[in-house]
Amino acid sequence: MKRLIFFFVFSATWSLAKQPNVLFIFTDDHAPHAISAYGSKLIQTPNLDRIAKEGMTFERCYVTNSICAPSRAVILSGRHSFHNGQMTNGDVFDGSQVTFPKLLRKKGYETALIGKWHLKSDPTGFDRYEILYGQGSYYNPRMKKDGKEVKHVGYTTDIITDLSLKWLKEERDPDKPFMLMSQHKAPHGRWEPALRHLGTLDDVEIPEPKTLFDDYSGRTSSAREHKMGILEHLGDGRLMLKYSSKFTPEQFKVFDGYFRPRNESFLAKRGSMTKQELTRWHYQRWIRNYLLCAKAVDENVGRLLKYLDESGLAENTVVIYSSDQGFYLGDHGWFDKRWMYELSYRMPLLVRWPGVVEPKSKNHDLTSNLDFAQTFLDLAGAKADPQMQGVSLVPLLKGESQKDWRKSLYYHYHEGGGHGVARHEGVKTERHKLIHFFDKKEWELFDLKKDPDEMESVYGTPEYAGFQAKLVKELGRLKKQYEVPAIVYKSHKEIKATRKTRSAPPK
After folding, report:
1. Count of structural domains within the chain
2. Which of 176, 171, 136, 129 is nearest to 156 (CA)?
């Protein structure tokens, strides 16, 4: 009997030890084309590149709803926005629903969330959390630590990493496997670089995207009615002509000392500049600040990787880097996201899993943030909730051939109005993309092989009639598969009224 008891105790302990730790590093608005592992010509990101070199780069990972809070809710719940209830940034996340951190805890994991949350309700399913209020600020952030407010002094990207390292070194239970979500505000606006980076790109002319002066003539009215133009909509605050952070006197002296003379020089000539000259100045000022915010992220990823190496944790820790969606970096003259167009739709995903993932490997399957929850659970040997709608990426990470992998993805942007982007849904295959702006009754179809920049819709053309019919049918199939409720096509007012009569997200 003693032998039998020992066997079971030993087996349980051995099994637990085999469970990998998971470090999930997550950013806001970090476009893949601002990561050198994805071929960026704008910036070098050596620490993110290290994850790619030692692991797998997912080349076709896409978001279900390209906006901050909904993307985070999809990752937590493994369900589309219309099922988890977080369809827009204005919604409040229902923390009572099943999420992957809750299921990981049942499997013996210690869970922690540090950094940006952005879901209005307090986090649930975590042993420890310390989160920014709302969007947070780049300097001296207020944070909520396990329900209590705390204040920090310094640069927020550095602080989030400091707190993550402190938890790893001093606060976690070393006898348990862990899931740490280290989540940054950067490089979300407004883009305020770290003091140490001010001026480091002054002598660099950042390459302009070839579509910077796009006139949207090849698409429907939806694209032309945007409010995210580099020239028209960045504004003084986003261009650092005005500052939003509450600096300490010492910080302000350095920050203002750098920007003030440059701002005064620009403002003295702004009235005489042409629209093209203004667009180019806006782009260079803004993209430099964006890239410097991203540079700080990369540096701090390096700090976390260094600690894993030095502590001996690296060999049994899966490191995952991603961001809530893509982002326009002047492409098509834009600076935001929301669209199903490729550059806001596509998100970065880099995964290092020592001894399992082949170094320098690349995956080209259609994957999604809908898959993250089930992937985390599969890594831990935990069962996914039956309501989850994604697919575990673990077989892909192991290099196993998946002949029956999905051939299409469903997208649905619910918010509408923000930056002038109309609500829309669509379907993407490897080569084609069909977008339906349902409020405007407009359709677009793109051949991504012939037109990767999505400049010319071929919807309604005889040449693509066959593809169009197939994609319309596939869109209908996906809507049925994911049980898209009819209420999501109603006005926001009608949706809100319906929700008041429900105690749960729409089904």
Report:
1. 2
2. 136
